[in-house]
Specification:
Radius of gyration: 26 Å
Structural class: alpha/beta
CATH topology of the largest domain: Rossmann fold
CATH class of the largest domain: Alpha Beta
Order of helices and strands: HEEEHHHEHEHEEEHEHEHEHEHEHEE
Strand order of the largest sheet: 1-5-4-6-7-8-14
Strand content: 15-25%
Number of domains: 3
Distance between the termini: 33 Å
CATH superfamily of the largest domain: Response regulator
Length: 385
């Protein structure tokens, strides 16, 4: 999408944190002084130290992650294991209270989320919501900072997170560009989401855009379309390249090729209108257009309608992103691909917590399936073609 048009969604960096517990897990006022005794002597009373989740996990013979899931009622724990954890919690009089303990002994209970470039804010918000939801399940809190695409600001953010002694860092990148690797610059675990780095050992969670492009082209083929074109974003960027490869793969499996060379341009409605005007001149019998984003698709649809072409009766149109302001407000609403960004953020958190918890989670790129969302902008090809 057009970075300038998307810039309006920017949200300021914010701190989401609960009051920090003391190092040994006891309340800060764990030792109290009572009133005078009958003999006039003052006595000091030591409050009983609260049990920690680490102790519950050790007593139940499970990992800290599993104990947290069992205590918080998460579904990915067997009933037998859950019962064992809850029994250990009762025996230790454990109360899940983040104000009185730290989830991981000797750690801060916080992670940093670094937004590399807020001009990609369209993707930041849902990814961040997924990450926050996953963090809340395991009683970790998040410090969010926006580097705004500035290397100096990024360095300052890392210095701040180092001083805050965060337990790990999530780096939210841009699927269209290479995300800078920060793993060598800070001595805590780092996991990347919505953007790959150049370091093969970095863990990066990204949408499977090739699969997404394949889904869209396959859907159009299933509706009887055969003269299919592709209008997308800037040439050479990761998302654009992968989506185009998926479209061409699906067409190739059907013994077809694109009806015209791929049209590359900015992520904007204006580009969509310009591209379709040119396309109708070069390929007047085009019957479907796969667009690289919902924003481009919006412009393509308005351009087709201005030229007297019906959507979907004459030309079917698909978008990408399932971005409501365009996918739902286009007339007709767009068939598109949802990248499931909240799930992406949650998966990155699970990997990060696994590393913090001492698990071996591997390395490299994790591709996440996208979901086809069918709406009124696609439909069977008109008869008599």
């Amino acid at each position: 999408m057009d970075r300038a048009e998307d810039h309006a969604e920017r949200t300021a960096g914010r701190v989401l944190a609960l009051p920090r517990p003391t190092r040994d897990g006891a309340p800060a006022d764990g030792r109290t002084t009572s009133g005078a005794s009958r003999s006039g002597m003052m006595r000091r009373v030591t409050a009983r130290r609260a049990s920690t989740l680490t102790e519950v996990a050790a007593r139940a013979g499970v990992s800290l992650t599993t104990a947290s899931k069992a205590i918080n009622g998460q579904s990915r724990v067997s009933e037998e294991t859950r019962a064992r954890v809850l029994k250990a919690a009762r025996e230790l009089s454990f109360t899940p209270n983040p104000m009185a303990r730290s989830l991981i002994s000797g750690r801060s209970g916080t992670v940093g989320l670094v937004i590399v470039d807020s001009l990609s804010q369209r993707f930041v918000v849902p990814t961040m919501l997924g990450a926050e939801a996953a963090l809340s399940e395991i009683d970790l809190t998040m410090i969010t900072s926006d580097a705004r695409g500035d290397a100096g600001r990024l360095k300052a953010i890392l210095d701040m997170l180092r001083q805050r002694k965060v337990d790990g860092i999530l780096v939210l990148g841009d699927d269209n560009a290479v995300t800078p690797s920060l793993s060598a610059d800070i001595d805590v675990p780092v996991v990347y989401v919505h953007g790959e780095t150049t370091q093969p050992r970095d863990i990066a969670h990204v949408p499977d855009d090739r699969y997404g492009g394949h889904l869209l082209a396959e859907h159009l083929l299933d509706t009887g379309r055969r003269r299919i074109a592709h209008v997308s974003g800037p040439a050479g960027t990761r998302a654009v390249t992968e989506r185009a490869a998926g479209v061409q793969s699906a067409l190739g499996s059907a013994g077809l090729e694109l009806a015209a060379p791929i049209a590359y341009g900015p992520w904007s409605q204006r580009w969509g209108r310009q591209a379709v005007e040119r396309l109708l001149t070069e390929v007047p019998d085009v019957d479907a257009i796969v667009c690289g984003s919902d924003q481009i698709a919006y412009g393509v649809v308005t351009g087709l309608q201005a030229a007297g072409r019906g959507v979907p009766d004459d030309v079917a149109v698909t978008g990408y992103d399932n971005w409501a302001p365009f996918a739902l407000e286009t007339d007709p609403p767009l068939t598109t691909v949802d990248m499931n960004l909240e799930d992406l953020g949650a998966a990155a958190v699970r990997d990060l917590f696994g590393i913090i918890d001492g698990e071996r989670v591997g390395h490299g790129v994790r591709l996440h399936d996208c979901t086809l969302v069918v709406r009124e902008s696609t439909g069977p090809a008109a008869t008599g073609r």
